[in-house]
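Shift notes (night). Ran AARP2CN domain-containing protein while the centrifuge was going.
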Amino acid sequence: PAAPAPGPALLRAAWRREGAGCAGAGGDAVAAPQVLAEKRNLGSKDGPPHLVAVVPLHGAAAPCDAALRLLQSQDAATVRGEPGGTGFALLCPRLKQRWRFVVAQAGDLHAVLDLAKVADSLLFLLDPAEGWDTLAVPGGTDLPPKKRIDAKKRLAKAIEKRFPEAKLFPLNTAQEASLLLRQLGAQRQRPLAFRARRAHLLAYAAHFEPSPESHLVGTLKVSGFVRGQTLSVNSLVHIVGHGDFQMSQVEAPPDPLALNPRVDKGHKRSQDMDVQDDAQNGADEMEEDVKVLMKADASKQESLQSEVIPDPMEGEQTWPTDEELQEAEGER
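Came back to this:
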């Protein structure tokens, strides 16, 4: 038997479903290439390193221990120390990606927020014994192997209540560290409107050159990877805690975290994992093979004056001149 024809309500519902499907497919088709390009550019040789902010949730959490576990990963080829010892860079030619890990100060909320503004990913470190406030797991290593899985599940549920959208990764073996690196490189970045409106960077190295007249005034040379919008040399830069400043020029120094750095003949680089201290080399690399990209134009530079200086005579009635008095008498 023939099925009855659908009524108006069924037709409207079917049309809405088809329209929603078409709209969703069209939106995904437009957004997919852009999202894929951003994911491929982040951490690649042509883009800035993947900036990971390491936030200890407890004062007893040791970021160095987690860093050593990351170094044991088979994908980690080269490790470079940060100037000042605030973090390290991880270069993985096998994965064709590079990361920069910066450790935030435990307990300093303002420092964590400033670092989170420019970070691509946040990596929270949970101490296995102290937790974050009062959580503790005494005797966790004494549990039988069969009960450890159940204990991890219960602990994961307790952590998910405080961090509902975060993913939990243990850092006990090199394989687990490798899984964490792959997750950092493959996860989708959430777009942040306030960060996409302007250019920003986290300094990799800084050097201050005082002027001959005074040691309190001079030129600050800051090296880092520009993210977000294009940086204009005629615009102002804001340094957190110090204020706004004008730029004199923008230079392009050699990439200190290149995946495939140039090696001179006769000096083959060791293939083993090596930890390099760049505290002294960070400022020196800024002076080698520097290319000037832009110089400031005094006629186009933004002014440092942020407030309007009031004119005391503005709005006041001035005394008429002799010509204005004669003209007024003639009109009478």
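The longest strand covers residues 203-210. The chain has three domains: 7-40, 50-192, 195-260+273-295.
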